[in-house]
Amino acid sequence: FSKPFFVEESTHSLSLCVQNSQKISKSPRFHLQMSTAKPSSSWMAQFKPGERVEVSCNDRGFRGSWYAGTVVRREAKNTNHYLVEYDQLYADESGEKLLQETVDWVQLRPPPPPPEKKVQFKVEDEVEAFYSDGWWEGAIIAEHSGGKFAVFLRGFDEEIVLEEKDLRLPVQWVRGNWEPRLEQVQREKENSNFSKEVMKFTQGMQVEVLTDEDGLKGAWFAATIIEPSGEDKYLIEYKTLRNDDDTEFLREVIAACNIRPCPPEIIVVDGFKVWDAVDAYYNEGWWVGVIAKVLINSNYEVSFIEYDEKTTFNLADLRPHQEWLNGKWVVP
Predict the structure, then answer these.
(1) Where does the Agenet domain start and stop, copy by copy (predicted)?
(2) Which pTM value belongs to this model?
(3) Which of 15, 165, 227, 315 is 20 to 30 A distant from 26 in Cα terms?
(4) Are 227 and 254 contacting, i.e. CB atoms less than 8 angstroms apart?
(5) Residue 203 pLDDT more than 70?
């Protein structure tokens, strides 16, 4: 098996000055840009004067960061632009006048809700870190004493040691609702009790299987349970993958932790939107991706998390992404 997609190498080096005059650089990383097309009125966010918000910055070198502020007013009744005043960004060097800026509605979201329970951060966790007056995307790379963590901030391309109070789990404001980031759902799946209580499958059951084959890692393939094969293992027969001689469908013994029921069908009425998590059907399996661009004729450009690549798919070859978590299907 070969790698399923062609790699499109794209690196950028960007620099600019932030409010504290610190020079920063942009690390090579693919960022999705939110669509600025007019949304349907059914889920378009409406913000009121005085409402607390967080503002994303579209300037180069600042993408992926969020700054706290307050809505001053909507610029006009029939526009999607708002005047906001930042909490900690200033309009002058003296630091006496807070910066006000007109931004598009897609750059605004309410402040994220606090977690329902205390978060136990660990190495490799994706986080948002409060630094240089804003919340930045990063990942924990080491744990220090005194409740401190070394975090690699992608926007600064450097390692910063921060206290636990300056970290939070990433979430997304999607069509008027808070939804967990895909990485968070996967983290919960890894830490859940369900991952230790292996599900039992019966002969003839239709399932999906995660394989360890090179070039196919991260993809789910349709299969049928043939019979149990040792403790928490099953002999399965793929429904699309064939043996080397191409004479019959491939059979393998798979650990139960890499088997799940087939996800329920979700009817997509209005198509997908930028940022939607999807599964794309390619090389006989379903690959996890994110809608990067909406094209014409029900076609979409999909960015693939696992491989840092993107390609074009028709709506017929896409489905909303679902995660099997604690015995339930979750849509991240």
Answers:
(1) 45-116, 119-175, 199-267, 270-326
(2) 0.48
(3) 165
(4) no
(5) yes
